[in-house]
Amino acid sequence: MLNRVSLRQMEYFVATAKCGSIAAASAQIHISSPSISAAIAHIESELNVQLFVRHPSKGLGLTAIGTLVLSQCEDVLERSSRLYEIASDTADVIQGPLRVGSFQSLTAMIAPEVIFGFARAFDKVALQMVEGDQEVLMNKLHALEIDLAITYDLNMGDDIEFEALATLPPYVLVSELHPLAQQSAVTLEELAPEPYVLLDLPMSRDYFTSLFTQARVTPNIVARSRSEEVVRSMVANGIGYALFNVRPKSNQSLDGKRMVRVRLAGNNRPMLLGLATYKPMKQSRLVRVFMERCRAYISDQYIPGMSAASFFDPHISAS
């Protein structure tokens, strides 16, 4: 009976096997390299096997027996993690690890109230929030590195379950001095020749450009950024307009300049905001309870940190 190898040592071994080096594993799990080396050496000594072989310039590679041990360690760790779920399913206490992915442009608005508010309500929950674009979040769902993601309905495979909670139509953001700021609505045909600042995130960029393709016009992209706040600052400084779906309540950029939200006319595909889960992964009671909180806090009537979809900024003449 194996009783002299701890779960912690198994975790260090699995992290090293997945990262391909002790240094990379150390950076990922925030444990010193000597501690990881000692854990691996202990397992090798207890089992009397060699787990890794060192390849020059390529890092560590698993031996044949190392691959078998890895599979067994992953199984043991997976079973041990279910102890929290078993306890939660048989008691009133909501506890255990919860890993929530959040689309990066949404995080500033929804994380405090929805995600961290849940952790405050249930102090036995060990919350880990992971921010990223759609590509990052989908990869982490597939790798079982997060339990669910609060995100958009962008390019999801058949193995992803998506539950829509709110509809976010696209709108136009311009500086208060932009000529379009005086209009109550604007079409994509009117926007096409104007300088455009693109929110350049994987999958998001395809969504925005598809709006122009559907209208059979080509946008005049003059600048782009992966950061929503950088795009907003460029818009506020008159570099161009931008298209967004997320609706921050503030109409100022980080440098204090004012922007105006204008309705985008036409029948444009909205983004759906909701919950994404990996179908093959069974949802724990903790995850199900968190999803109920999301359903209560995110809807077409209310989204934390966002203005209503029907609200557009007063024009300059009304300020």
UniProtKB/TrEMBL annotation:
<dbReference type="Pfam" id="PF00126">
    <property type="entry name" value="HTH_1"/>
</dbReference>
<keyword id="KW-0805">Transcription regulation</keyword>
<dbReference type="InterPro" id="IPR005119">
    <property type="entry name" value="LysR_subst-bd"/>
</dbReference>
<dbReference type="InterPro" id="IPR036388">
    <property type="entry name" value="WH-like_DNA-bd_sf"/>
</dbReference>
<dbReference type="InterPro" id="IPR000847">
    <property type="entry name" value="LysR_HTH_N"/>
</dbReference>
<comment type="similarity">
    <text>Belongs to the LysR transcriptional regulatory family.</text>
</comment>
<dbReference type="GO" id="GO:0003700">
    <property type="term" value="F:DNA-binding transcription factor activity"/>
</dbReference>
<protein>
    <submittedName>
        <fullName>LysR family transcriptional regulator</fullName>
    </submittedName>
</protein>
<dbReference type="InterPro" id="IPR036390">
    <property type="entry name" value="WH_DNA-bd_sf"/>
</dbReference>
<keyword id="KW-0804">Transcription</keyword>
<dbReference type="GO" id="GO:0003677">
    <property type="term" value="F:DNA binding"/>
</dbReference>
<dbReference type="Pfam" id="PF03466">
    <property type="entry name" value="LysR_substrate"/>
</dbReference>
<keyword id="KW-0238">DNA-binding</keyword>
<dbReference type="GO" id="GO:0032993">
    <property type="term" value="C:protein-DNA complex"/>
</dbReference>
<feature type="domain" description="HTH lysR-type">
    <location>
        <begin position="5"/>
        <end position="63"/>
    </location>
</feature>
